[in-house]
Amino acid sequence: MNSHLRSLCRPRSTAVLAILAAESVLLTLFTPVQTVHGETVADRLWIWGHPAGVYNDSYLAPLAKTSSIEPVAAAQSMGLRNMIFVQYNGLPKPPLDDYYRPFQKLDRVYWSLVAAGGTTSEAQREAVYRLAEQQPNVAGFILDDFFHGHVSDPLERGESPAVSAPFDASLTPEQLRAIRQRTVGDRQLPLMAVVYTGQISPRARRHLDEVDQVCLWTWRPDDLENLEAHLAALEKLIPKKPIFLGCYMYDFHGRRPLPLSRMRQQAELGYRWIREGRIEGMIFLATPNVDVGLEAVEWTRDWIAKIGQEHLKPQ
């Protein structure tokens, strides 16, 4: 028995024992389940969040369906406890304290420093830093629609001598480095960047060197046919950097329901890759379309309920 354990075994005053008992209760309440019982598949699953109803007048309009579910309620309806939340069309507006209260129910939240469409500002980022300082379950930051280029652009077809130039992006590598070095209270939170399959290119490397994690997204459902090749290419581009697999539950490119075969394909591949240790987790997009009766969403909800509590072997 080490000296610390021996000291714990010595008689204590009533006051000290009461304090220790209170601390024990707090630890029980706030210790994540996986530290006691082992990590489960559900611990690696996330939902992509936006404010309620943001797709109603755009992506969902062809279906004549509207969504009203709030982000945290959407996560709960899917059986998920982790969220990547991204501001959309300037919403929610800071200060974020009141809006964030429901998010305190979740295990982990990443909040956008770069919002949907690649928008960002110093004032926006400072509001997010303040939120993270106040909310212990803010576990990281996300850079959405970060790169403003694509490998099918003219540069990639050899039409310009600048073919090897880095992609334009919402932030410079120097800005990313400063963000990574910034502490939030006594924490240094990870920085995750969105990469679409068409952006797996050496032109992205200079920026990706300055982030901690990457999430991979396939915009066109037909391109899921090459998902295994795309993951291998990304692994080669950013070796040893954690990768999350982004899974659309709707065909945003075609503004129509995603075929169930495509939903099943990406979910089952991601599940296998989590178990093999190739990816860190999966992200299902998005909260504003989980309450409109989409077949892919309903299948995913049932699938999560089926496999979520399976235990993972330590990597």
Task: Walk me through the topology.
Blueprint: H1 3-9, H2 14-30, H3 34-37, E1 45-49, H4 71-77, E2 82-85, H5 97-100, E3 108-114, H6 122-134, E4 138-143, H7 173-181, E5 191-196, H8 205-208, E6 213-217, H9 227-237, E7 243-248, H10 260-276, E8 281-285, H11 295-307
Parallel strand pairs: 1-2, 1-8, 2-3, 3-4, 4-5, 5-6, 6-7, 7-8
Report on this model:
The chain is of the alpha/beta class. It has one domain (46-149, 162-307): TIM Barrel. It is built from eleven helices and eight strands. It has helices spanning 3-9, 14-30, 34-37, 71-77, 97-100, 122-134, 173-181, 205-208, 227-237, 260-276, 295-307; strands spanning 45-49, 82-85, 108-114, 138-143, 191-196, 213-217, 243-248, 281-285. An eight-stranded parallel β-barrel has the order 1-2-3-4-5-6-7-8, surrounded by four helices. Helix 6 (122-134) links the parallel strand 3 (108-114) and strand 4 (138-143). Helix 10 (260-276) packs parallel to helix 11 (295-307). The longest helix is centred in the first third of the chain and has 17 residues, at 14-30. It is globular and about 45 Å long. It starts with a helix and ends in an 8-residue tail after the last helix.
